[in-house]
Specification:
Radius of gyration: 19 Å
Largest sheet: 8 strands, antiparallel
Number of strands: 25
Order of helices and strands: EEEEEEEEEEHEEEEEEEEEEEEEEEH
Number of helices: 2
Structural class: mainly beta
Strand content: over 45%
Helix content: under 10%
Distance between the termini: 44 Å
Shape: globular
């Protein structure tokens, strides 16, 4: 039932830590999900420095989905969006041929806040990689929800369990938020060929193995999978159909390496529009990593 276990690798983003799960060295994607970060948990005091914010930066070839368990983030992008995201809501941003955005902790700066959330990137199929950029926001009340047997679930995106979320997606996928009471069990059907559970809070049991916060269990295709809470727990379930190999470098995703090089050149050359409402600064392109050592030298 469990194909692989991926532990989060903790990284300091300069003011708070994230647990990076995807891409992993041994498993780069689950369905079209190519990037998965657990932000925090982190407690921000009032008056936090602006350096903690994520300044304007670019993306191509993907959709980002930000989903919070606690806290608030202010999103601004180059298609004119300005939208706070709060727990249970969905910010779905499609980069396509190119978009820039910022993520700022303005509520935390004003009054303090606690951040606990997930950010995922969904790689676009080749037919949509150069699509027009766009942004959609959905309140929690707009998302399909269910409750049964100590399990409370919300479908963030895609289709699952006979439900369909309102956000438009470019390939078959699903993304679920599950809150489980102690001892509650949830059965995930094999409707999608690639699936995984990620433990965001608490502890669970899958196929006789215990999993805690920061662990992703990639599931064997074609079989139903059960998760049972050992104490109150929050689990994210995600997956979908594979879309083929992708290159990923910095904030860029593409099926073509040369397209990423073009995006790097465009950002370096100032040819990607900054958000209208947040255009005073930006994150520069990181230097290219050094080439690997010649094994024959």
């Amino acid at each position: 039932m469990i194909q692989l276990v991926i532990p989060a690798r903790r990284r300091d983003l300069g003011g708070f830590e994230v647990g990076r799960v995807l891409p992993a060295p041994l498993h780069r994607m689950v369905g079209p999900f190519i990037f998965f970060d657990h932000m925090g948990p982190a407690d921000f005091p009032p008056g936090i420095a602006r350096s903690v914010d994520v300044r304007p930066h670019p993306h191509i070839g993907l959709s980002t989905v930000t989903y919070l368990l606690d806290g608030e983030i202010m999103h601004r992008d180059s298609v004119g969006s300005e939208q706070a995201i709060r727990p249970g809501e969905v910010n779905w941003m499609t980069a396509g041929r190119g978009i820039t955005h910022s993520e700022r902790f303005e509520k935390a700066r004003a009054q303090g806040d606690r951040l606990d959330g997930l950010q995922a990137w969904v790689a676009l199929p080749e037919s949509a990689e150069e699509s027009e950029p766009g942004f959609a926001h959905f309140d929690a009340a707009a998302l399909p929800a269910f409750a049964e047997g100590g399990v409370r679930g919300r479908l963030i995106a895609g289709t699952a369990l006979g439900l369909a979320a309102p956000v438009a997606v470019a390939s078959p996928l699903f993304y679920l938020h599950l809150d489980l009471d102690d001892g509650a069990r949830f059965a995930l059907p094999p409707d999608h060929p690639e699936r995984a559970f990620y433990v965001a809070r608490g502890e669970v049991e899958i196929d006789g193995q215990r999993f805690g916060v920061g662990q992703m269990a990639v599931l064997t295709p074609g079989r139903s999978a059960d998760v049972t809470a050992r104490g109150p727990a929050t689990v994210m379930a995600l997956g979908g159909e594979a879309i083929g190999p992708r290159f990923i470098e910095w904030n860029f995703v593409s099926s073509r390496k040369e397209r990423i090089e073009q995006a790097k050149a465009d950002w370096r050359g100032g040819r990607m529009k900054l958000p209208d409402l947040d255009n005073g600064e930006f994150i520069p392109l990181p230097p290219d990593p050094p080439p690997p050592a010649n094994p024959m030298s």
